Amino acid sequence: MLLQKILGTITTEAIQGELNREISGIQIDSRQVAKGQAFVAVRGSQNDGHKYIEKAIELGASAIICEEFPTETNPSVTYVTVRNSEHIVGNLATTFYGNPSTKFKLVGVTGTNGKTTIATTLYNMFRSMGHKAGLLSTVVNYIDGEAIPTEHTTPDPITLNKLLAQMADAGCEYVFMEVSSHSIVQNRIGGLTFAGGLFTNITRDHLDYHKTFENYIKAKKLFFDNLPSDAFAITNIDDKNGMVMVQNTKATIKTYSVQQAADFKAKIIECHFEGMYLDINGKEVGVQFIGKFNVYNLLAIYGAAIMLGKEPQECLVAMSSMKPVSGRLEAINAPNGFTAIVDYAHTPDALENVLNAIHGVLEGKGRLITVCGAGGNRDKGKRPLMAQEAARQSDRVIITSDNPRFEEPQDIINDMVAGLEKEQMQKVLTIVDRREAIKTACMMAEKGDVILIAGKGHEDYQEVKGVKHHFDDREEVRKCVGLAD
Length: 485
Prior knowledge:
The chain is an alpha/beta fold.
């Protein structure tokens, strides 16, 4: 595509060189640049792409898009300056890949918890209804039935648009996408056309990046502010920020709730570890999910399907056959009669939700043993809060490593137990080795007990000092109880 066409929707500041030149691709990583491509120099939080302009040219870049011209320029290269290069990458990529999001109905899911469950279940539901569909999620991306590994909740704009173009080429009619707060602020979703947006809830998370909770709320709200007038915005009005999210949106607003009147309303009739019976808008349905927080997730799913033109009965039938996402309240029944549950909960609110869900089924008939930790190089403020929540709702707690990254595991554990009172510490063990922590919990458990292993869920690695080592909570539990292959 001609550089001039790629820049079509972008406000440029200055241009040096020929715009009427063919560009074979766009890159923001100088190491990935190939002959004839455009390199966009982005000032990231960790690194400044402007330092790698010369390297990109050596690898064959024929155009440089940046915020300031380098001291020395190459006469065979076109240089374009813009005010904020990070914010225009999405629009460049959207144009280069032919505006793929206009070729299907793209639905974005944002909020602190529930994004993966909602996006994945919608993807599975619409495929079960006979549609070709795409998924962009924390766990895995799918182009119809083909799995594509994922590194981030929302990929960089170039990877994202390339995936969306592949989905369009594969004939996808619907694409469901988790939208992270980082991607909204960094404009990774710039240029995309959304048919609808869903808000789940908002609690403390990512304050290492956003600095304040107010900034985090503003980031999520910006997604709804930018939805077009022909889109829909579905929000959880039981969350105190639910209506704040949509107060400036141009989209059609729909609400869901389990506590008050709403467009999509539900209540729990019965709950077991195998699932629940729900009343949704006056109709009963059996589902294979448990916990009040999953009732909210299912309402968002139901609402989105209705807004995408599906009949209520068709949605309920499809929902009844859906299974929970891998690593989300995933139960493993031990031969000696206890149940181990593996869940991704890694925020205080998510941990509270999962513990509440387990108590809703246990009803005091067994003990709850919780194994949890906190990630390194992330928001330290949530560490004592998670330990407090685990201690408040569990009979025994084992605090251990999660993904320590570049921190010392013991330091993270110390931050967690610092939030506990002397009385709470009596039920708490600290075991740095996660494998040993899981093994100890399994040795403690008796018939009728439940072990919750929280924090990693679907992840099959543990990140230590920049290296990902194979580690899967589910595999470890199965080994401990004699169910390993």
